[in-house]
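Known limitations

Files may contain more than one protein. Parsers should not assume a single record per file. Below, a two-record file is shown to illustrate correct handling: read the sequence, read the token line, then continue until end of file.
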Amino acid sequence: MTKLAICPGSFDPVTYGHLDIIERASKVFDHIIVAVFHNDAKTPLFNTEERMDLLKKSIAHLDNVSVDSHGGLLMDYAREKHACAVVRGLRAVSDFEYELQITSMNRKLNKDVETFFIMSNNKYSFLSSSMVKEVAKYDANVEDLVPPCVETALKQKYS
């Protein structure tokens, strides 16, 4: 039986912090689906197709990782894909309380799916997509924060 995990997020845009979590999870599970979800609380810079394209380019070196999108509840998507787990990254203690609430609700919605937290690499513990967008908007150097394809896409969006 294949151990399939979902790594959900908005990925607007994907950062090296995201990729660190995805790469590490890909060593634990047979297959990872990186799922781009729409978050009504956020106004994305990149549309869903653009985010998926940037993710596909960024994870091309990982044979057991694919990219998809979904507009509904994560637990419905997990059930549809027959996933056994959700992988979430934690940057700091402040992330934990928020993630605990989400995980508790997800457990209520689908008790068959476990949530696994992977602590961020210390060098990415400060990194967020919002922060990347903010500094890229003012033409700051983001090459150490995002893959080259994302850096190019950010420059195009803000030019």
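...continuing to the second record:
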Amino acid sequence: MLDRKDPVNKGDRNKIYFLIVVIVALLGTNAFLYFKDKYEKERFVTTNTEKERLKLEVEKIEVEFDKVNTMNVALTEKLQNEQKLARIKISALKQSLQKGQVTQAELTTAQTELKKLRAFLTDYKDDFTRLEKENSFLKAERDSLVRSVTTVSAKANALEKKNSELNAKVKSGAALKAFNVALAAFKVKNNGKNVEVDKASTAKKLVTYFNIIPNELATKDYHKIYIRVFDPSGNLIADEQNMFEAEGQEMQYSDMITISYNNDATAYTIEWVNPRAFVKGTYAILLYANGFTMGKAAITLK
């Protein structure tokens, strides 16, 4: 006899239960796929955003290094090596971030390296700034030293110039000066006697007479007296090998004697025999002692 209270048989109920389970499973799978897809999209967007941010950070750090390097500072070997290492890391990070797909693990590694690079840049800039200050200080000291040396050198040169001028004055003041300088022409007779003449045709030699002005600064010692003889045409009559220094230059002399100076009234003479024949006109002589002009005289021969 049929049970009227259960219009759906047991087999139908099992089918219904099975369909419900299938529907629930499908709904669950769809939900899982939906949320997974959503998560993947969000993760992809987040990964790309983080990659772009890291690329920008790397470029900023590279710009900072370029700025520091524009300063005119001589880098130490340590800073040069640190800069090379930083450039290598920057290049590696840029290459890593330029790939089409970047995993989360790669991003995490890049973030860690970037953090180290920021810290390194801070230390590098601090070292660079310190070095720049030290160089500025050393440059200021060098400039100050150069100025001091220049000043001292200028003072030394000025002092040397004054000393030279003073020595020149002292030397000039101590030089012998002649007065009563006179010049006479003589012929020599067969018996050796000298006879004064005024004609060029008979003259054989010139005799210079002079006294020396008393001078307490002059050294009481032997002094060389040089004479230069000029003919009527103004030509010096001298041997090319006879050289002395006077008035700051090398000169030729016609003759030279050595006298003993005692700061007294001694009279001196210099006899000069003309190696050539005398000609009509005026002969002039210049006397020198101690590197300065001592006196002069002239004579006209008929």
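Parsers that stop after the first record will miss the second one. For reference, the second record is described as follows. The chain has two domains: 10-127, 178-301.
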